[in-house]
Amino acid sequence: MSFTIRPARPAEYTELGRLTVEAYRGSDQIAEGSGYEAVLADCASRAADADLLAAVDDTTGVVLGGVTFCLAGSPYAELARDGEAEFRMLAVAPAAQGRGVGAALVRECLVRAAAAGAHAVVLCTHDGNGPARRLYERAGFTRDPERDWSPVPGFDLVALRRPASAPAGAR
After folding, report:
1. Which residue in 82, 91, 144, 156 is a FRET match for 129, CA 20 to 30 A apart?
2. How far apart are the C-alpha atoms of 29 and 86, rounded to whole Å?
3. Which keywords accompany this UniProt record (predicted)?
């Protein structure tokens, strides 16, 4: 599968929002009654206040996944401190999972962080999301337990961090 990571286009926002909600539901990353589905689906707001990136199939133009990248101080930064970057809402369409799309989105965030002069990249993921944890650990992220938090009672998020140097083989 050949795909490109680039800024999401307004015509793709609806599909990217839909697949993000679908991926989060499928991995139990949405707390019941939290209203988070509306936030995940609102790609226009994400694109206005952060870098909304899409992974797009080179042959068909189908959106395969996306991620929201931001720097500390952004309205979308939850964990990032001064000099750090953060990414959130990484999602891959179920049909494209296991094909390197998630890893490519992570690499692009690392490249962007290094280019922006960030010294580290942080993220959080649901404590029970093993596939995401493995993806992030393979990319060099390690636990940062002092930043763990719960957006709603009983829904625990673990924080991960790594230096922002661009990964080997990055564009």
Report:
1. 82
2. 18
3. Acyltransferase, Transferase
